[in-house]
Amino acid sequence: MRFTKKKIAAITTLTFLFLLTLILRVTFDTIVNAVIAMELREKLPLRNGSLAFHYWVKPPVPVDFKIYVFDIVNQEEILDGSAVPTVIERGPYVYKLHLKKTDIKYHGENSTVQYRQKQQFVYDRKSSVGPENTTFTTVNIPFITVANVLQFEPAWLQTIVDSYFRSQNEAPFIKKSVRDIWWGYEDPVLKQASAIAKYFNISSPLLTGKFGFFMDKNNTDDGVFNVFSGLNHNFTDYAMIDRWNNMRSQSVWKSDFANRVRGSGDGSMQPPLITKHSKLSIFDTNLRRTLSLEFNTSASYKGVDVLRFLVPYSEFASAKDNPGNAGYCTPDTNHCPPSGAINMSTVSYTAPLCASLPHFLGGDPYYQKQVKGLTPSQEKHQPYYEYHSITGVALNAARRYQLNLRTKPYKGFEAFRTMADAYVPVLWIDGVATMDRSTMNLFKSDLQDPLNAIVYVKLTLILASCLSAASALLLLLHWWRADKKLITPLEESATVN
């Protein structure tokens, strides 16, 4: 094959294009990663003026905080032992939860930021099924709490308290409004019980004369948080809790692991560069424990790619099914509820409360047998968090759990002597947090669209490399065949001569 100057120039050009596009493709990921790292160092640190700080200090959209209550419809059958509790779910009763970080202080020695997060609940009548003063029937929680507190006290004391409660027409079931059961209501009998308890040196913060699951928590906060700020550009523990109320460990559970304060403060942010193999967790101040998250699937939310993580059923499993939960069994592992619920009595001041996923989703079949009217659904009831993989920001999330009352017969209290032995659901919450349209447009234009373009750039470089290599090979083949056609007639002529 004869190489002319034109052939050499063509082959040289194609070879150069092949090597150039190959080198660009090989180094492209490194260049992109360097650009991403530079952007993260600029936008993620929690300092005034950064993009992350803007959304962290005051989320632009309030949380849709939905409450669903369980209305007990067969009180008489429960008390005479002829039927298990039957409930009907009522709701949602929706509050707009406005969040704002306050009292912000920085600690340079360990690159943390300290804050309180104010919570303001505003009732949203338009999104609710009815007014918040709508009533429903539930177990008389203060009354059964008194029975639970006094169950190991002398029989004569239980008899006196029981007689007083009955003389005041206290019953095992009461009709209360959503507002009452959530924000609290005063109970004259409970006040009297508080006075009796104090006389006999029996103390419980529940015996104050008032009861409510979120009593005195509107326009307040969940305590003082210290989280890692990323100001030192170390994002491995970014947004993770260093201390809560100056504690790295609590004293409410039965193991060091269970008591440890760890994970994201509210689940809204995680360390950046999340993958499906990332080990994520959140610390829930209401449940007083950390919940691990488990990767579920890759998805898209409003045009932006996200990784969807779930709170797995195993987080509410018994120690038998999940040995890691042994520390949540109180007083010991022999007293674990069946898988699906966690005993909360140590953090609810001896009230016989248990936490679970809504409708006992993922729990032991026992729960569906001892209460009728439950319809667990993974789509409706499993908590989830959808994170942007690069920034670690939750673009869509639902915090969900259910509060249940552990009922059983109390021999010292006539009202509860024939009470059903069951875990009776009281209510469940569905706290849905999403990003607003302008923020999602920002994520799409500044992050998702460039990421989509990167895919096409990669494909273009690969295609250009392949085309330049193929073109060179085809040219060489073409020239070889052309030269062969010229050489063959000459050889035949020489043979004849």
UniProtKB/TrEMBL annotation:
InterPro entries: CD36/SCARB1/SNMP1 (IPR005428), CD36_fam (IPR002159). GO terms for cellular component: cytoplasm; plasma membrane. The chain crosses the membrane at residues 453-477. Belongs to the CD36 family. GO terms for molecular function: scavenger receptor activity. It is found in: Cell membrane. Keywords: Cell membrane, Disulfide bond, Glycoprotein, Membrane, Receptor, Transmembrane, Transmembrane helix. This is Scavenger receptor class B member 1. Its main location: membrane. It is a multi-pass membrane protein. It comes from Elysia crispata. Signal peptide: none annotated.
